[in-house]
Protein 1
Amino acid sequence: MGAYAAAIALAPGLPTKALLCVPLILIPIVWRLLRTPTAWLALFLGCALLTPPLPIALGDSGPHAAIAVAGAGLFIGLLRLGEWRFQPDALALSLIALWSIFACSIAMAAFYSGIAIAAGSLARVLLFGISIYVFLYVRDGPGRLTMRASLKGIRWLFWGGALSALYACVDFYFQFSPPAGYEQQFVWLESGVYRRAQGFFYEASTLGNLCAFFLEMAAVALLLRRPVSRLALFLGAAPLAAALVLSFSRASLVNLAVALLALGWLRRDRIRWRRMVAGVAVFGMGAGITLWGAFPVFARAAWLRVSAAFEYFSESPNAVLSGRIDAWRTLGGYLIANPWRAMLGVGYKTLPYSDFIGTKAVGDNTYLTLLAETGIAGLLAVVAVNVAILTCTYRAARSSDSVRSFTGAWMFCFWAGQSVQMLSADLLTYWRVLPVYFFVLALAARNRA
């Protein structure tokens, strides 16, 4: 060690010294990851929530450090193969079946769209597989957590989500230059053109979906045993609510509304309605006043965007839905004209990159897109996954185990909203936030003796 320190001291130039210091940093990190079965998982989720893509021209947004951590997690899972206890229930089998259908569709992608597009589809299949691996690792593998560790993990996730939302608000205010590729989503105002709040993510809808997820956690925590204090809930919920509004994601607002309705139905026998309405009103007014005071122009634009959706939906639904109806008509027309394509599909995630159907298309509808890309089997599989998640989490919400009850109610409400939001977005491509959701799902789905 002394000789190595002397070598660093004698090395010429700061870059060389820094390069020689890298092993000193990596060795203890690798040792920690190998020694503790959940260390890689914490690092992966932290990277996914709180770091941007690398500024390298590869794919739509550039590679992400979380992918390397996920690779390390797969290696660690193989090293600890003896600790796995796989439960072949409906939830696990439906998830594996969905991933398998995606993987099999790569052959159709290569046949119809070529090897280059098929390679991109394969990459997206592998990214979706990360979420399933996280679920199985935590529920059935070495990542099984005690009640205390589960509550600690939930707290860290909540604060990670709140920090990610806070950065998104700051980024929106200052309009920082993105380090890598990003979706071209803007707000046109009299004072200029502004990029919608995206934070560390590729697009605003991913941020909005994540904010809805943690806001729904806060709502559930107000009714059940709270993993974080009431003050912490309000402190964390403030940037989450602000980022949700500044993302201008109306579909995520619908997700949140559906989840709150599901929560009201799920806990209808325990809710003190007057107290809940008063609390929601106070929090809503406080958040609204804060948002209006900090971002008056943008808050007004967000309000007009939502109110216009209700006012003009009957007159111009396609404009209100940002051209989605035209995209749905394109895909629907193609499937009607070529019904045999619906048997096997044209390959997972090929529609936005291939003009095989006559034009490139972004379906913005999980169900319709999967029908076109992976055939009837893919559509039935995603419906089966939704049913399995809702069934499993509903049962967990009724459990006497406090962690299962809390995470079950949280995921039941959220996935009810997800199932609806899938009508307007391809949520299965949100690979950086989906592992967070499946981590919580694993806590709810795990059988505790």
Protein 2
Amino acid sequence: MLKLLASRFADFTPALVNEQQNSVFDANLNALAASEDSDKLLAADAQVSADSNFWLDADNYMARYRPYKVQNGMLLIPVAGVLLHNYPWATPWATGYTYLYEAFKRGAADMDVKKIGFLIHSGGGEVAGCFEAVEKMIKLKEECKKPVRAFAHEYAYSAAYAVATVADTIVVSRTGGVGSIGVVTSHVDYSKMLEDIGMKITFITFGKHKVDGNPYEALSPEAKDRIQSRINELGEVFVATVAKNRRKMDAKAVRDTEALTYTASEAIKIGLADEVGPLDEAMAAFAADPISTEEEDEQMSNATATARSPRSQTPSSCLAPGASAPLASSPPMSIIRRCSKTSA
């Protein structure tokens, strides 16, 4: 199982991780591979895109790995460990982009959810799936008009910081950190070791670039340049994502961080975070913040305008699992618009 996980980050696969936390990264992958449910969590048939049956029944043993907890109108979504593509679970060691999007989507449509929070403690993860999930959650946030806050407790680095930018406000614990806005990959060269033991590998290929970057030969300058170009392109996607979502920093300011990590106070100064404080106080403050009256008025207006159509019902795709559609009243138009886009 560990080899299966490690393969996600092998052979020039770009990653959004904080390289200063390699030991933590490895420990999380080891813990996931050694967990009692690793076979189920890493099963091939589980690593698929979510569908209408994503949320499991409460009596299903695996439902605990797809948490959805709403307290006092606030949904808190965990973002922990290594962030993985096509991984529909949330554990202390790894969280899937699929899970994050599905939890956010459910919270956006759930009328009992007034606010959404991300509880983040992650050094990053895969490039694959990250920016798409962030973009989709941003779109949902704009449609549902619900306040979103990210709590970096303790840290939100690289891919985890990309997720944090979905929030309107980023709060960092006093001993926490954010940043590492960069992309990394690596090449291993075994050629000298093989030469020392008297072994030589000869490739026979069609296409002169077929084996560029293989570990048995030194990396050619041309191959390195091509790999660097791809990494640069992904890095610019990351920069653009942060600049667009944060608004406090333009692309140059984000790029100039050069993938550094920042303490809470440093992050406030340059615009990567908004507030510093203990998690419990930050969450209590978020819960106490009043909901925008503008949004409440919009929802009330929409509900009043559509109440004249008694046959109208909330689209089933926008109901929380287990909920039934009201028969005597209609949903706000913002919900209808959201559902029509989702089902298109």
Protein 3
Amino acid sequence: MTSTSVLRVGVATILSVAAVGAAVSARQTTQPRESLELVVLVLANGRPVTNARIDCRPGGIHDTGKDGTAVCRFTAPADVDRLRVSFTAHAPGFAVEAWVGDIPAGSTVHEIGLVPEVPVTGRVLDPEGKPLANVSVTLRMFDPSRSLYATGGELPDHNLLQAKTDEAARFTIRGASRGRVYRLAVDPFGPLPHTERFVEGGAPPIDIRLPGTGNLEVDVTTTPDLLPAVQELLSQVTLEWRDENGGPWRRYFLSPGSSPQGEHVYAFFWDLPAGIVRIVTPYAGSFAGDVSDPIAVIARARNRAAMRLVQAQEIRLRVLDYDNQPVTDARLSVSEGRGQRFVPLDADGWARIAVHPAHDATVTVRRPGYLDATAIIAAGVQNPPPIILRPVR
């Protein structure tokens, strides 16, 4: 048996100016840059709000003037058509608002309306139900139409508002909007696991009990010819976890212990937070990426589950322009409901894509000067039709 599992939280951020800068830093030293600005107009009951604080990421903090506007300025490489930015708007007595979106070169105006604030209240308890004082509680935005993940790349992951529990374990966070659903993150000091729940602005007080820990043994099976490669694959798995009472999925990177026994490989995950988990395997070698069914992890117990790995299916997909000529310089990404994979195009416009034989795959193609194109390749399709890119008119 190899070493026991090591658990560490994976951190992801939105594709902001900083992320773009990191991705293209090598090219920025020689490429010209363009200026972009986002004019934020803050209103309440149709009237401008003065002295509202606009926190642009990473464009700094600005206050609105008498006309209710604040200007966030950015720069980007000239070949970047649109830039992903985000901001939050804070004003006394009003709910905090957040926005994330793409802006083109030049000036863009975005109007945001503020509504009166309501509190989010509750208590934080340890796994045994005892009150916990001095625990950090953070309110974050949540948009189910974009992502059910705590670190979804399409969400502004700003910490909107924070508080700490008092001696009686109570907390009050002001600045929520009535009826809106938020993510509430609880970060205790010390060894107790973090948890995150969904809460509603203005709802009755909520009791949040921190999860205990339990162990998980997973029986991993596959075809005999692929068994020798399973242990190496397990070193690359990701675990998704959420609170048993509901909440966003959180991603963890894992190094589980493993032990081959005949036609099986057993993976061991120690001291997992109690709750619901899913095991995500990557595309690696001949294996298709996959995700397990939800697994309940019960505290102070050795939990068991099974997962079968299958061989990936390779398909060929061609990308053509509006004149039926091969496209070689487009950016092609593939998704099966989780993180994107980028696949290169060859000199004839063909991409070789590994897919799961039982899952639909979504392919998106982006090329400057052309409309984005998306196609869904149904499970089992061997020869999908080409994707045709159309120029922006």
Protein 4
Amino acid sequence: MSAQDWAEGYVVDLDYTRHYFRELSPAQLRFVTLLGGIDAQDAAPFTYYELGCGNGYSTALHAAANPQGTFIGVDCNPTHVHNARKFAQDVGASNLRFLEKSFGELLQEDLQDADFIVLHGVWSWIAAEPRQHLLEFFRRKLKPGGIVYLSYNCLPGLAQVAPLQRLLLESAGPGAGDRIEKVRRSLEFATRLQKAGAHFFSANPLAAARLADMGRHDPHYLAHEYHNANWAPSYHADIARELAGAKLGYAGSAALLDNFAQFVLKPEMAKIVAEIPDRALAETIKDYALNQVFRRDVYTRGAPKAAPRQLEAALARTRFALARPRSACRLASPTPAGEVTLQAEAYAPVLDALARAPECAVLDHGRLRQAVFGMAALGNLLPALPAAGEGKRRENATRFNEAILRAPITDASNTFLASPVTGAGVAVNLIDRMFFDARHDESQAVGSAHTAVASGRLKLRKADKNLESAADIEAYVKDRAQFFFTDFLPFLKMLRVAV
């Protein structure tokens, strides 16, 4: 059997990039259902599947930060599964296993029923038959009240990009070379076509902009994103109808801001959407209003709408933590609908309280929902796990983080560490990672960072540009060190990422 046979058109001859996606965390998915006013299952212990898990970074991090769950990662690529199993062993994640299975083969396995099933991007890259296998897996295995996360390339935003993807796929085929060479060759050909005056690019400016942006991306990512034989962006209404056949209903978006029409839609557009009684159509019209290119949908199985008192009680039981250092929290932010400003007298005291420690409700119930939802929409806070069980979570997360930090720094990408408070990952950038390694001695940390940069092994970047001059590097390291030790390190300690 050739790779093309078992891979069903998916790119398997090139390792996928290692990424972390916080929206896949159980606590965040549960919170999305609360945003949607839905009383979804709040199970502990729980069973969690990530389908199309790649190299398993997100799966392993979430397993480490949530030892109360059983985690199962599934991928058809044996290289990915090998890497994921090795990674799980290295970080000591014992509540985790990986299966090398196609979605069709998965249906033949005798597996535990699921509380969570998550897929990031996979739906857009597979053919009709594997999609049907996924729907059948949802139907058979998801428990009543369970949650499905499904992200996918969507329409209408990618309507102009679909012909560009076909151009890249077809032009990569002829000629010799490995997958990376074919990616580069396809980009060069498309760029040459554009420069020669192909009317497609002038008539489709979003495709031209997407082509220009590809040059800054890792070729491994480009291969998996654009070189699959099956590349099919979808309308939300079509996805919702297909999942309804598996007894799933739409709960909300894991991109939290998108759940608030007043923040993402102009008033006249929000009025039009509010007049549409059908939820799937309303969401699709929102996508037209925003020219949406990617969706992060959350669905539930049979979970009922919560009565207002139930919702308030669920929110009152939920701990919350800051999503960023207190100094970086924003009460005003630009949104697709314009500048949004939250009242400082109402919201600042809540942020101050959460800066001291994660808490349950810090407001009276009458204002709880508005405050929590508003600050979550602007990215200031995240749901946190209950205080009970934090000791075990901390032990596992510390083991994961120590393993990650022992690995050498090989590039400028973010490192994601596990928080036993939120049950999710926290991004640590290149310079902060260097400070973190010597966090008990500020002068030593700054000196180590200067030494690493001076060696030429690592490049510091600011505003998407490499810092080249010694003066620029010194100023950046000095400024960032002050932020790290004054603001970021206390934040990491509060989330129990640092001790």
